[in-house]
Structures are given as C-alpha cells and as structure tokens.
Amino acid sequence: MRLERLLLFIFWALPRFGKNQYRTLQISETQTLNVKEEEKLLLKRQGVRYFDITNFPSLFKTNEVKTVPEYVYPVDLINGDRVSLALTNVSTKSMYDDLAFFTSFYTRYYKSETGYDSAVWLSKKLKNVTETLGDKVSQLHIDHRDWKQFSIIVQIRGVKTPEKIVVFGSHQDSMNLILPSVMAAPGADDNGSGTVTNIEALRLYAQYLTETQDWPQNTVEFHFYSAEEGGLLGSLDVFTNYASDNKTVVAMLQQDMTGYVPDPKNEHVGVITDFTTPAYTKFVELVIDKYLSIPFIETECGYACSDHSSATKNGFPAAFVIESEFSKTNKYIHTTMDTLDRLNFGHMAEHVKLIIGTIIELSNWEFKLKVAE
Ligand SMILES: *[C@@H]1O[C@H](CO)[C@@H](O)[C@H](O)[C@H]1NC(C)=O
Ligand SMILES: *[C@@H]1O[C@H](CO)[C@@H](O)[C@H](O)[C@H]1NC(C)=O
Ligand SMILES: *[C@@H]1O[C@H](CO)[C@@H](O)[C@H](O)[C@H]1NC(C)=O
Ligand SMILES: [Zn+2]
C-alpha cells in the first residue's frame, strides 16, 4: 500500500520536476544555454535576449535551418483612396481608453492570474470590434501547455486565395524584471502599445469592410501572443504549429513598442533591419513613405528581440517596426514606471496607418515567388 503511494507520487512528481527544472535558451545563431527558470530572469535583466527553445529543440539545429522564401511585394502603392477611407475614423481616444483598461491589470505577466484575466478581456474586446463582420471573422485561442495566458488569433478568411496569410502581430504580456510574480508591471509601452495599435487597426479595418464589402482575397490575421517576455514562447508555439501544418504565411509585420517619442523634434519610426526579411522590409518602408506623416530610420535590435523572429525562424517572411531608433526606445519598460502618461497617442496613430496601409496594399496582392535570375 505504502509502496503504491510512493510510486504514485513519483509518477506525479517526475514530469513536473523534469519539465520545469532546466530550460534551453538560444541566445544567438550558434549558442545555446541550459539554465534554471530563475536564471532566465537574471539573463533578461542583463539585457540578454533569447528564444526559450525547450519545447522545440529541432528548430534550432544549424543543419536544419529553414530558409525564408522570397516573395515579390508591390513597388507601386496605388491604393491611397482606399487607405484614406479606412483611416477615416482613427481615434487616439479609443486607443487611450483601451490602453487605460489594459494597463489597469496589476501585471500581464504570462504566468500570473491577472495575466490570464487580461487575455480574457482582450478576447472580449476583439469580439466587440469585429462583431459587424459576422461569420466572415473567427477568433481562435491558443492554449499553451506550460502557462495559463493564451494567445489569440483573429482571422478574416481570404475570398480567393485563403491559403496565403498576411499576419499582424504583437504581444499582450508585460513583465516587471525585478520580481515578476510580485511587483506591478503596467506595461503601457512594452508592450501594451503594440497590442492597442493592433486593436485600433483591426477596429478600423472591420468598419471599412462592413462599409465597403471589399473582402480581402488573401487571408488577414491579427495575432496577440502570450509570453513574449518569457523567451518568445507564445509566438514560437504559434509559428511552429503553422509550419508543421504547412501553412503559407506570406508576410508577418510585428509591432511591439509604438508609443514613446524620445525627441519630438525628430519624430520617426524605427525599421528593424537585422533578423528580418529584406524584401518585405523594403515594402514596409514604401508604405511608411507613402502613408505616414513621419519618416523612418533603419535600426537593429539584436537576436530574438521580438516575436517576428519566431516567424523567420519557421521560414516565414517578417518585418518589425518600432517606436524609434532602437537605442532611444523607452527606458521605463519592464518597470512600474512604464505608464500611460509617458506615451504619445498621435505617434501610435502613425503605427496604425502603417498597418492599414499594409493590409490594403497586400490584401488583394497576388503573391508570387521571386524567380531567380
Ligand atoms: C462594444 O463596445 C462598445 C463601446 O464600448 C459598446 O457600446 C457596445 O455595446 C459593445 N458591443 C458589444 C456587443 O459588446
Ligand atoms: C466611420 O464611423 C462612422 C460612425 O460610426 C461609420 O458610420 C462609418 O461607416 C465609419 N467609416 C468607415 C470608413 O469605416
Ligand atoms: C506537410 O507537408 C509535408 C511534406 O510535403 C507532408 O509530409 C506532411 O504530411 C504535411 N503535413 C500536413 C499537416 O499537411
Ligand atoms: Zn519587454
């Protein structure tokens, strides 16, 4: 009897210890580290960025690197009228209200109870802004095995070539780097601002579709990843599954911090040029030139700096645009001081224009692979 109990306990305990004890982190193309869960936090405080690849070791074998196919993107942007129409109702108030609510959760740390509650709120909000689309829209929750905060995918299925998927991503979690399970992390800029930018763009696009019935030929998806701060865990789950399901993502645009303007006299957005896809990034720069009222500066953010890296790692083209040149981004992130009053909602509206311009230009674009010369 007692032996039985002991065995039962061992069977119960083993996977739990085994699973949580060590994590494998990829910190560059060629280096991995095995660390305890607590040590992840130490590394993050030191500014080390990583993929937590514990669940996907094969993805990172150097002999199995997935190449990103090169698609042709538009070079003439000819949809100015449709883009202006879709942007008619862009509202800094609506973004302010959303972010005020989103940052009212004590923390959106992905392992916390309030991190789950914030995902539930986000899901309801996304239902609300897309409800006029009826059955043309669907919402999927991605439950992750090891933590509670789910990722969310909103999909507007393409009417002609639904297998071609254009993705707009952001992450919903926040984190206090000192004591994540205990201390507050309003996470207004990092990375609530990216989430709210995507909510506003989706709200406008849904209104535009309702009014014009100009349904996209390609599938359009908005992704809200959980657990970015834990080593891109949510987006790794999503894109690794997309790859194993043989899905075709033709373009992924990540927005992360979008609300901080370090120098109002030199307002701009930062276009990330490392670990992103050059052809798609060039197209995104054209969209900025044509549809934003501020310029861009090219900048680098290092290995695994946000969720777009989970897309390219799985062989999908991706671009990443951030609030400014990387070295000047918001210094208050990951603290209790990452708050609303430090953000500029006009600047966030510029990031919304980027999404709307990209959606309208790509929704009916006939994607073809570039033919080698
Ligand atoms: C969606 O939100 C708006 C504004 O908050 C509200 O007026 C409306 O009733 C909501 N709709 C649903 C179905 O919840
Ligand atoms: C702008 O908002 C108004 C009022 O809600 C709505 O009737 C109109 O369809 C919207 N326009 C566009 C282009 O979405
Ligand atoms: C994906 O494609 C591979 C290779 O063509 C095939 O072996 C596999 O069964 C496909 N998987 C799914 C889920 O369709
Ligand atoms: Zn962060």
TrEMBL record:
Signal peptide: 1-18
GO biological process: proteolysis
EC number annotated for this UniProt entry: 3.4.-.-
A molecular function GO annotation: metal ion binding
Peptidase M28 domain location: 152-356
Family: Belongs to the peptidase M28 family. M28E subfamily.
Protein name per Swiss-Prot or TrEMBL: Peptide hydrolase
Species lineage: Eukaryota, Fungi, Dikarya, Ascomycota, Saccharomycotina
